[in-house]
Amino acid sequence: MIPDPLRQHLRSCQNIVVFTGAGMSAESGIPTFRDRFEGMWALYDPQDVASLDAFRHHPQTVWDWHVQLADKIRQVAPNAGHAAVARLESLVPNVTVITQNIDNLHQAAGSRTVLELHGNIFRLKAFVDADELFAGDHSPIICRICDGYAVADECGTYATKDDLAAIVLKAGPIPRCPGCGARLRPDIVWFGEPLDIYVLESAMRAADTCDALICIGSSLEVQPAASLPVRAKWGGAKIIEINPEPTSLSFHADVFLQGKAAELLPQLIQAVWQSTNY
Question: Considering 82, 106, 118, 138, which one is annotated as catalytic?
Answer without folding.
Answer: 118
